[in-house]
Specification:
The protein is built from 14 helices and no strands. The chain is 68% helix and 0% strand. The longest helix is centred in the middle third of the chain and has 23 residues, at 122-144. It is mostly helical. The radius of gyration is 18 Å and the shape is globular.
């Protein structure tokens, strides 16, 4: 029996996520077929908002774009979504299983704070990771009809580790999400890092963040396959960073190797 054809908005989100975030596209395949359009929509929403600081020349313009999304979510709640493929896909997911608006608000607030500058302390960094990665994971868990507590913990770990492994890309855009007090104490400008000879102090900071991230992962028992997949990939990236001496500039960390696909396949086949 063939599956029902996907709505154009779902196809848009699926194709967008496949193009801009292969990990998320791979993980979405672990969700039940009927839930995948919602998972794609959430990932597409995350990407649309996350890239705002890279598209604007000043914070006020970023705030305007995020307000557009706040208004879009208000329209989704009132069952009058605007004509935008990601919004329409989110509206379909919300109609199927109402998404928690407090998580959406916390996520957008955290993205706002992110554009204002890096968190001041490691505790603030973790709180921001919870509000970003954890809230996205909560939306995903709701779409799957699953409890969100463990999903939030996994989303937080995913976001914390992501701050380290995507640091080279973030620095290209003149920003980072590392704790400002630790960076200031090192008396080192991150824009002047030598990828081949990073000072021990900054390596120690990277290690602390990564160890904290993976230590916060819950057991995989009882998790939906999607979040088991996130857990597996978080551990994989943690191992790669450790093998690279905690240097995020190593090309081996984010390389699209078989290991990433295998980590997800293990969940699918119960290995």
């Amino acid at each position: 029996m063939s599956s029902a054809p996907l709505h154009p908005s779902a196809l848009h989100c699926r194709d967008l996520v496949r193009r801009v975030n292969p990990d998320r596209a791979l993980l979405a395949e672990l969700a039940p077929e009927g839930a995948r359009p919602g998972i794609w929509a959430i990932a597409a929403f995350d990407w649309e908002v996350a890239r705002i600081p890279d598209l604007v020349s000043e914070p006020m313009l970023g705030a305007i774009r995020r307000q557009w999304w706040r208004d879009a979510w208000a329209e989704i709640e009132s069952s009058r979504p605007r004509h935008h493929p990601v919004v329409e896909a989110l509206a379909a997911a919300h109609q199927a299983t109402p998404l928690p608006m407090d998580s959406v608000d916390a996520y957008l607030d955290a993205r706002e704070a992110e554009q204002d500058g890096p968190p001041e302390t490691a505790d603030e960094m973790r709180a921001q990771a919870t509000a970003i990665g954890g809230c996205i994971a909560c939306l995903e868990a709701t779409t799957l009809g699953q409890p969100s507590q463990d999903a939030v913990a996994i989303g937080t770990a995913w976001a914390l580790l992501g701050e380290v492994r995507t640091l080279p890309l973030r620095l290209q855009h003149g920003r980072h999400g590392l704790p400002a007090d630790r960076v200031a104490a090192l008396e080192l400008g991150l824009d002047s890092l030598d990828p081949n000879a990073i000072e021990p102090g900054i390596i120690a900071l990277f290690q602390d963040i990564c160890v904290d991230a993976t230590a916060g992962l819950p057991s995989g028992r009882g998790l939906p396959a999607l979040h088991q997949g996130y857990r597996h990939l978080t551990l994989l990236y943690g191992k790669r960073l450790k093998a690279a001496g905690w240097n995020p500039f190593s090309s081996a960390i984010n390389a699209p190797t078989f290991g990433r696909a295998w980590s997800v396949a293990r969940v699918r086949f119960g290995l």
